[in-house]
């Protein structure tokens, strides 16, 4: 079965302390066994017209869609999501089974 990905692109509100949001997200994923991996980054290369104001990307990997569903419905995630979406001006979420074309080198 393919891994399942949860991708979030965010444009934070101007008054948000992004570091506090990141600490909360790092705490959340560290407490959730269903999260196989978590990476995030801040865009520093794209031209504004291409990124359309989105500044941060968050990517979680799960072993299966069932693991993602368990994560998404967990009370800690539900609570964090409410806080997270109060901080963003705009967000895009994509949840998808991963199709590996070139696996990571060992």
TrEMBL record:
Gene3D superfamilies linked to this entry: 3.30.70.100
Superkingdom of source: Eukaryota
SUPFAM superfamilies: Dimeric alpha+beta barrel
InterPro entries for this protein: Dabb, Dimeric_a/b-barrel, HS1/DABB1-like
Sequence ranges assigned to domain Stress-response A/B barrel in this UniProt record: 4-106
Subunit structure: Homodimer.
Designated name of the protein: Stress-response A/B barrel domain-containing protein
Native species: Rehmannia glutinosa (Chinese foxglove)
Record lineage: Eukaryota, Viridiplantae, Streptophyta, Embryophyta, Tracheophyta
